[in-house]
Design brief:
The complex is a heterodimer of chains A (116) and B (110). Chain A is mainly β and 116 residues long. Helix content of chain A is 0%, strand content 52%. Chain A contains no helices and eleven strands. Chain A has strands at 4-7, 10-13, 19-25, 32-38, 44-51, 57-58, 67-73, 76-81, 90-97, 106-107, 111-115. Chain A is globular and about 35 Å long. With 110 residues, chain B is mostly beta strands. Chain B contains no helices and eleven strands. In chain B, the strands form two sheets. In chain B, strands 2, 4, 5, 9, 10 and 11 form a six-stranded mixed sheet that branches. In chain B, strands 1-3-8-7-6 form a five-stranded antiparallel sheet, with no helix packed on it. In chain B, a hairpin with a 6-residue loop joins strand 4 (32-38) and strand 5 (45-51). The model of chain B has no long low-confidence stretch (mean pLDDT 89). The chains are: A mainly beta (116), B mainly beta (110). The A-B interface holds A 2, 4, 6, 41-44, 46, 49, 91, 93, 95, 102, 104-110, 112 and B 31-32, 34, 36, 41-46, 49, 51, 89, 91, 93, 97-98, 100-103.
Chain lengths: 116, 110
């Protein structure tokens, strides 16, 4: 149980294009989903928290117009990197929690984004 | 800000030996902790968690110890196997959000 999937697993795009990453909870309903960014050999950096049916809460320094998050259902959240640039290249990981607060976060497998 | 750090950034152990990975946290109000394992190119995988009303919790080959007095968390892996090679993160919940440690890279030597 508690499986989270991400799609695509890897994407390479040209600078200036937009990329959408999907995060799905496969066997549970996720009230809250989180989006992280991870640089090589570094820890996870929380970008935003999204609750189903409401606007995402972005961490300080994360541009909400750059990283669009939609949590339209209890099993799906999407992250769209708009007008991607090479500095947006990174490993993006989502996690999902069944309830808010201390409920365990289950992570997706990650999406490797490379912007040329 | 929060500070969740690991004492050892890298750890090498012989196959079959026990491994101990340490984590220090700074917020004494944190009441929930999780250990995650992350293999190269993959997302973090939940290993074990512990709440602040406990000081020890055991899973399959893993044990988490919590010392609230010194704000220290450890993960013990028994009979370490090559498949245990990965980066291990501790995560601390402070009542508002989780904070993740830097990570310790565990290498198991066959």
């Amino acid at each position: 149980g508690a499986v989270v999937s991400q799609h695509p697993s890897r994407v390479i795009c040209k600078s200036g294009t937009s990329v959408k990453i999907e995060c799905r909870s496969l066997d549970f309903q996720a009230t809250t989903m989180f989006w992280y960014r991870q640089f090589p050999k570094q820890s996870l950096m929380l970008m935003a928290t999204s609750n189903e049916g409401s606007k995402a809460t972005y961490e300080q320094g994360v541009e909400k117009d750059k990283f669009l998050i939609n949590h339209a259902s209890l099993t799906l959240s999407t992250l769209t990197v708009t007008s991607a640039h090479p500095e947006d290249s990174s490993f993006y990981i989502c996690s999902a929690a069944e309830r808010r607060g201390t409920d365990t976060q289950y992570f997706g497998p990650g999406t490797r984004l490379t912007v040329l | 800000g929060e500070s969740v750090g690991l004492h050892l950034p890298t750890l090498s152990v012989q196959e079959g030996d026990n491994s101990i990975i340490n984590c220090a946290y700074s917020n004494s109000a944190s009441d929930y902790f999780i250990w995650y394992k992350q293999e190269s190119g993959k997302g973090p995988q939940f290993i074990i968690d512990i709440r602040s009303n406990m000081d020890k919790r055991q899973g399959q080959r893993v044990t988490v110890l919590l010392n609230k007095t010194v704000k220290h968390l450890s993960l013990q892996i028994a009979a370490t196997q090559p498949g245990d090679s990965a980066v291990y993160f501790c995560a601390e919940y402070n009542g508002n959000q989780f904070y993740f440690g830097t990570g310790t890279s565990l290498t198991v030597i066959p």
